[in-house]
């Protein structure tokens, strides 16, 4: 098909009022792409209200004559503090019926131009990368990234475990340590433990209080009652944070517990605490009525997380790739 006549479309920045219509676009894309990600209007509003997201400069909506979304794009310019590379992340999608007409290519080009601006504004002294993610099965997205000169740089798995299957028997907790439910009064200690546990992991930067409060324990999907901590006295040495997404449940009919973060501080590793956290969480989830548990893992994770999840019965559901091109 020939390139779309962009004069027939309206391109503008998003506002919070666009959340319901954007949720409809994402639902239409998910029906075609089957990525396992479902959002309702409240979820979309939470995404659009993210810290450091400048809606006027970092989002693009593409609208047809009827006022409905044809495509959208958004950028995350990264935190104020970085460890090595300044990564600007892009997301976006095109309505399935409008694909193949050059809209995605135009959208990605505009995002790349804005990403270069963000890099110069925030971290011009550091190497810069423009990163996008795509599930292997969405071939049109992969083809777009390849044609734009992106290279694959990281591989990930979404993994699932059926909670109707037998659960593992766990060894005793190491002496001097105990497992407890997440408690709000320990939230700051958990934030700091997470930053320490993921220091040096690819693409990870320690979340500040604002990001932590929006995306982690302040997220509307966070389930504190189904999250766990490992304590040494009053010190948080390990943690597992759980999320439940209503839109996923409504779309699939499966009540899934999503393990968003699991970590052990480096000084406390090699004591089986990852097994204790995740193995104990499986029992918590089943007792709470969940039918399945899911998580995402970097296949090159240096702590051996992939092997741990496989030993506990997790299976690969969907592979995905991070693609990147240099900024500068």
UniProtKB/TrEMBL annotation:
Q: Does the keyword Cell division apply?
A: no
Q: Which InterPro entries match?
A: Acyl_CoA_acyltransferase, Bact_Acetyltransf, GNAT_dom
| Classification via Pfam families | Acetyltransf_1
- GO MF terms, alphabetically ordered: acyltransferase activity, transferring groups other than amino-acyl groups
Recite the UniProt keywords alphabetically.
Acyltransferase, Transferase
Question: Per the database record, which ranges form the N-acetyltransferase domain?
Answer: 9-164, 177-328
Q: Which SUPFAM superfamilies match?
A: Acyl-CoA N-acyltransferases (Nat)
Keyword Transferase recorded: yes
- State the protein's name: N-acetyltransferase domain-containing protein
